[in-house]
C-alpha cells in the first residue's frame, strides 16, 4: 500500500509542470503577437511566427491576412498622400488638408495668405490653423465619414463658404471667399433702392405739376408759365439722372476700350469756357494752369465725363466770391489733373464715402442744384477704367481739391 502511493505521487506534479510550460508558451506567443501588431500599427515590418497547431494555426493565418491587408492599405495610403498634398498645392482656391487626428498636413499659398498661417507653423490643430470653431467642428464631424459638409462662416471680417470633405482617413477643406460677392450683391440691392427713390422724386413732381397745370390753365392762366418752367426743371433733373445711370452702367462694363489720343488741356479749356458765364454770375473766379498740350491716350467721352463732373462740382459747391482753379501737369508718365475750389468743403468723416453712389454730403444743396449723387461715382469708375487713381483733400469751410492721375499710355 505504501509502495503504490509512492509510485502514483509524481502524476499531479507532472500535470502541474505541463500546465506551467503550456502557460509559458501561451504567454510567449501572446507577447510575440502583441509585439508584431504594435510594429504593424507603427508602420514597421515584422514577421508573425506563432507556431502551434489547430486553433493557433487558424489564428496565425487570420492575423497574417489582416497584416497583409494593413500593409497594402498603408502602402496605398503612402502613394496617395503625396498626391493629395500636390492636389492641395495645385488648387486655386484656399485649401487645407488635415489628418485623422485633425492636425494640419498641408495648406496651399492662398489658404496661408487668407488665414495668416505661417509656413513653419508645423502640425497644428484645426482650431490653431484656421482660428474658427465652426470650421474645426466641421472637420471633426467629417473625419472618417463619407459625406461632405458645407458651411458659411464669418471669419476675420470676411464671408467664407467652406466645403469639408473626407478623403480616406484625412479631411480636405476648400474655402471660397465670398466677401466681394456679398458686397457686390449688397451694392446692387442698395443701387436699386436708391435709384428707385431718386427717380420717384422727379416723377412725383412731374405728376403733381401736370395735375396743377391742368387746373391752372383754366383757373389762373398767369401762373401757367411758372408751372411749365418747374415742369421742365423736373423733367431735366430726371433726364440727368437717367443719363448718369446709363453712364455708370457703361463704365462698369468690362471689355476693350476704344482709345484715342485726347488733349486733356484743350478738353479742359473748352469745358471751362462753357462754365465761365455761369461762374461770373455767381462771382466765382475761374483759372486754368496748364501746358499748351497734355495728351492722354484714352476714351474721349470718359475723359470729358471726368473733367465735366469735377469742374461742375467745384462750381456748384463753391461760394460767392470764391475761386475755381484747375491745374494740369505731367508727372512720371502720367498727366495729373487737380481741381481746387474754395467752397463749403467736406467733413472728414465723409471723405471716404464721397465716391459712393447716391452719397451726398449736403443733401439739401445737392437737390437744390439738381445733383444726382452719381457724379463722383462716375468719375471714380472712369478714372479706374483708364488705370488711373483719384483722391480728395478737403477742409470743412475752406474748400476741396480733387486730384486725378491718368497714365499717358494705356496700362498693359
Could you describe the 3D structure shown?
This protein has three domains: 2-78, no CATH class; 91-177, PAS domain (Beta-Lactamase, 2-Layer Sandwich); 257-412, Histidine kinase-like ATPase, C-terminal domain (Heat Shock Protein 90). The radius of gyration is 40 Å and the shape is elongated. The protein contains twelve helices and twelve strands. It has helices spanning 2-8, 10-41, 55-90, 109-115, 126-130, 133-142, 179-219, 224-252, 264-281, 300-316, 363-368, 375-385, and strands at residues 95-98, 104-107, 149-155, 158-167, 170-177, 260-263, 285-289, 295-298, 323-330, 334-341, 389-395, 399-407. By secondary structure, the chain is an alpha+beta fold. The termini are far apart.
Present the secondary structure layout.
Elements: H1 2-8, H2 10-41, H3 55-90, E1 95-98, E2 104-107, H4 109-115, H5 126-130, H6 133-142, E3 149-155, E4 158-167, E5 170-177, H7 179-219, H8 224-252, E6 260-263, H9 264-281, E7 285-289, E8 295-298, H10 300-316, E9 323-330, E10 334-341, H11 363-368, H12 375-385, E11 389-395, E12 399-407
Parallel strand pairs: 7-9
Antiparallel strand pairs: 1-2, 1-5, 3-4, 4-5, 6-8, 9-10, 10-12, 11-12
Helix pairs in contact: 7-8, 8-12, 9-10, 10-12
Amino acid at each position: 500500500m505504501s509502495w503504490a502511493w509512492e509510485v502514483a505521487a509524481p502524476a499531479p506534479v507532472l500535470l502541474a509542470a505541463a500546465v506551467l510550460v503550456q502557460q509559458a508558451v501561451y504567454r510567449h506567443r501572446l507577447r510575440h503577437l502583441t509585439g508584431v501588431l504594435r510594429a504593424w500599427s507603427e508602420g514597421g515590418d515584422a514577421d508573425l511566427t506563432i507556431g502551434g497547431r489547430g486553433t493557433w494555426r487558424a489564428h496565425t493565418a487570420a492575423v497574417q491576412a489582416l497584416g497583409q491587408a494593413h500593409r497594402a492599405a498603408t502602402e496605398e495610403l503612402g502613394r496617395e498622400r503625396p498626391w493629395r498634398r500636390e492636389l492641395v498645392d495645385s488648387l486655386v482656391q484656399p485649401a487645407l488638408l488635415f489628418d485623422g487626428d485633425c492636425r494640419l498636413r498641408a495648406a496651399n499659398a492662398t489658404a496661408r495668405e487668407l488665414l495668416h498661417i505661417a509656413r513653419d507653423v508645423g502640425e497644428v490643430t484645426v482650431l490653431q490653423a484656421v482660428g474658427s470653431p465652426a470650421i474645426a467642428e466641421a472637420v471633426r464631424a467629417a473625419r472618417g465619414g463619407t459625406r461632405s459638409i458645407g458651411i458659411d462662416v464669418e471669419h476675420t471680417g470676411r464671408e467664407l463658404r467652406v466645403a469639408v470633405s473626407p478623403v480616406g482617413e484625412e479631411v480636405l477643406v476648400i474655402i471660397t471667399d465670398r466677401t466681394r460677392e456679398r458686397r457686390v450683391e449688397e451694392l446692387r440691392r442698395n443701387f436699386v433702392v436708391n435709384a428707385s427713390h431718386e427717380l420717384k422724386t422727379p416723377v412725383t413732381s412731374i405728376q403733381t405739376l401736370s395735375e396743377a397745370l391742368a387746373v391752372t390753365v383754366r383757373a389762373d392762366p398767369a401762373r401757367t408759365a411758372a408751372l411749365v418752367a418747374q415742369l421742365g426743371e423736373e423733367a431735366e433733373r430726371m433726364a440727368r439722372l437717367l443719363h448718369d445711370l446709363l453712364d455708370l452702367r457703361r463704365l462698369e462694363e468690362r471689355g476693350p476700350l476704344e482709345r484715342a489720343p485726347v488733349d486733356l488741356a484743350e478738353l479742359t479749356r473748352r469745358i471751362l469756357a462753357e462754365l465761365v458765364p455761369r461762374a461770373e454770375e455767381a462771382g466765382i473766379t475761374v483759372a486754368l494752369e496748364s501746358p499748351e498740350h497734355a495728351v492722354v491716350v484714352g476714351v474721349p467721352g470718359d475723359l470729358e465725363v471726368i473733367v465735366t463732373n469735377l469742374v461742375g462740382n467745384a462750381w456748384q459747391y463753391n461760394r460767392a466770391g470764391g475761386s475755381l482753379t484747375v491745374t494740369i501737369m505731367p508727372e512720371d508718365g502720367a498727366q495729373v489733373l487737380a481741381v481746387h475750389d474754395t467752397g463749403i468743403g467736406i467733413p472728414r468723416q465723409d471723405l471716404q464715402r464721397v465716391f459712393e453712389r447716391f452719397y451726398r454730403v449736403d443733401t439739401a444743396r445737392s437737390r437744390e442744384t439738381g445733383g444726382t449723387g452719381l457724379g463722383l461715382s462716375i468719375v471714380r469708375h472712369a478714372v479706374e477704367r483708364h488705370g488711373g487713381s483719384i483722391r480728395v483733400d478737403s477742409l470743412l469751410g475752406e474748400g476741396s481739391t480733387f486730384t486725378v492721375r491718368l497714365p499717358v499710355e494705356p496700362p498693359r
